UniProtKB/TrEMBL annotation:
Keyword Nucleus among record annotations: no
Listed SUPFAM superfamilies: Winged helix' DNA-binding domain
Organism field: Acrocarpospora pleiomorpha
Residue ranges crossing the lipid bilayer per the database entry: none
Any Pfam family matching the protein: HxlR
GO-annotated molecular function: DNA binding
Alphabetical UniProt keywords: DNA-binding, Transcription, Transcription regulation
Ion transport among keywords: no
UniProt name for this protein: HxlR family transcriptional regulator
Tree of life domain: Bacteria
Domain HTH hxlR-type: 12-113, 174-272
């Protein structure tokens, strides 16, 4: 059984699931994402999650137990033998992923069940949007600005999400981030999206490389096209084949993907080496993501980000 220490990386066994597989197995679960979302907002106690989410006792208990076993939460007693679940160093380190999700939903998804909170940078005191930059040169980056591929432990087979819980396709009534949940709240969705950023375009490639059932691949591609994340076009090889390419909306999801990969590779270490290796040709250095405030351009830190309920007329990012 793997040990997941909350303050240092997990040592993975050779030839097994790599950092990508473990990361997708964790964040590719819609209940995990929702529980983490409220944990980032300060919820620590069982009753707080039960009040905030339409979640059953059995499901919440299993997810909290799993997240604790994975080193994301640690249990602490309060009052008379009552327990609360506190984010560990590993868990707190997920903030860039959640922050990137927040920003993408605000910019690209017009309708939400609840009003999206406003993110305020305590350093400059202003509402902000995170900007993805290169940690080495501080320049903003887009997907085409970064080159990368599989590293020593990176294969399609080893990157398949490591399923640790039973997943559902939707979480009714819990739609703060509805389209993000559609993209990564299902392990095959997350795998197909990640594969598209690595250059896969054809149905057959998704099916063969990921080992996903064809019915699931077809359904996921259909949903991604309906959301405007993928667009269909005739294949260059045969007119009766279709290719699936990321749209501008899909490419804008890159900060979520790259911050999730970076988190995974910090906290899951295969003996062969990293699963993914990226470079930034503009500066010639290895690429590591860093989020900056779009106002003051200072690198963001988790404890310097405040989440506030929007006033009647709040600053909202303009859509595309």
């Amino acid at each position: 059984m793997l040990v997941h220490p909350p303050d240092r990386p997990t040592a993975l066994p050779a030839a097994g699931a790599n950092a990508i597989g473990f990361t997708l197995g964790l964040i590719g679960d819609e209940w995990n994402l929702l529980i983490l979302r409220y944990a980032m907002l300060g919820v620590r106690r069982y009753g707080g999650w039960r009040e905030a989410l339409p979640i059953s006792h059995a499901v919440l208990t299993r997810r909290l137990s799993n997240l604790t076993d994975m080193g994301v939460f640690e249990k602490a007693e309060y009052g008379s033998r009552r327990l609360e679940y506190r984010l560990t160093k590993r868990g707190r380190d997920l903030w860039p992923v959640l922050l990137s999700v927040w920003a993408w939903e605000a910019a690209w998804v017009p309708d939400h069940v609840e009003s999206l909170p406003v993110m305020v940078h305590r350093r400059c005191g202003e509402p902000f949007l995170p900007v993805l930059t290169c940690a080495a040169c501080a320049k903003p980056v887009r997907p085409r600005d970064v080159h990368g591929g599989f590293g020593p432990s990176g294969t399609w087979e080893r990157s398949v999400p490591a399923a640790t819980t039973r997943r559902r396709s939707t979480v009714a009534g819990a739609g703060m981030f509805p389209q993000t949940m559609t993209l990564i709240g299902n392990r095959w969705s997350a795998a197909i999206l990640g594969a598209s950023f690595q250059g896969l375009h054809r149905f057959r490639d998704f099916e063969q490389c990921l080992g996903a059932p064809p019915t699931i691949v077809a359904e996921r591609l259909r949903v991604f096209c309906e959301l405007g994340v993928f667009e269909q076009s005739p294949s260059a090889e045969r007119a009766d084949w279709l290719s699936y390419h990321l749209t501008e909306k899909g490419r804008a999801f890159f900060p979520v993907v790259i911050t999730a990969i970076a988190w995974g590779q910090r906290w899951y270490r295969a003996p062969e080496g990293p699963a993914m290796v990226y470079t930034h040709p503009a500066c010639g250095q290895d690429f590591h993501p860093r989020l900056r405030c779009d106002g003051c351009l200072v690198p963001l830190r988790g404890h310097e980000v405040a989440v506030e309920r929007p006033p009647a007329r709040s600053r909202r990012p303009s859509g595309p």
